[in-house]
Amino acid sequence: IPAPAHGADAPIRNDSVTITHAAPIATRSRADDIARMTQTALSGWTDLTAPSLDDFAAIARAAFDALPEPFRSLSGEVVIRVDDFADEATLAEMGMEDPFELTGLYHGVDIGRRDSLGPAAEPSRIFLYRRPILDEWCDHGGITLSELIAHVLIHEIGHHFGLTDDDIDRVEAE
């Protein structure tokens, strides 16, 4: 799959956040808001807003940091990027018309093929799409937003390790 139009050379738009291993965690007040979202009765939701791109980046960072070794270190310098939606070119390449169908995407050369192809020309990237993840979270029920973001992130890291969707489905079923 070719690089999405918002690839590494494109400037970061206001509606995206790029995080790497050195990314900071969200500010204390937004982190507190996220914690309150999971502990507040429905009547208390009137003062809360949907998690921002920065909030998603912080949750993804925490999920990445919680990966056990050796998985975290084998992920190398993968770049995790959070956008509201996949761009039109990515959706077209994936054969999707509905932007809510795609919650995450791995783009790069998986580590199993790197030795035979030489070093990757650009860093591997994992895209997490905020609005489709929020939509799935609302429809799914029974899991926290942090759990769903971690699930999508781990799924995409599976592709980084060379696993197919079928391989990942089998692992998840065990």
How would you characterize this protein structure?
With 174 residues, this protein is an alpha+beta fold. Helices cover 45% and strands 10% of the residues. The protein has helices spanning 28-39, 53-65, 71-74, 88-94, 111-117, 130-140, 145-160, 165-173, and strands spanning 16-19, 79-83, 104-107, 125-129. The chain has a 4-stranded mixed β-sheet. The protein is globular. The two termini are 29 Å apart. The model is unreliable at 1-28 (pLDDT under 50).
* Extended strand count: 4
Most strands sheet: 4 strands, mixed
Helix content: 40-55%
Structural category: alpha+beta
Assign an overall shape: globular
Poorly predicted residue ranges:
1-28
Strand order of the largest sheet: 1-2-4-3
State the order of secondary-structure elements, H for helix, E for strand. EHHHEHEHEHHH
Mean of residue pLDDT? 76
Instruction: Output the number of helix runs.
Output: 8
Distance between the termini: 29 Å
Radius of gyration: 16 Å
Strand content: 5-15%
Describe the structure concisely for a colleague.
With 174 residues, the protein is of the alpha+beta class.
Defining traits:
8 helices, alpha+beta, 4-stranded mixed beta sheet, about 170 residues, globular, disordered N terminus, about 45% helix
Annotate the secondary structure layout.
Blueprint: E1 16-19, H1 28-39, H2 53-65, H3 71-74, E2 79-83, H4 88-94, E3 104-107, H5 111-117, E4 125-129, H6 130-140, H7 145-160, H8 165-173
Parallel strand pairs: 2-4
Antiparallel strand pairs: 1-2, 3-4
Helix pairs in contact: 2-7
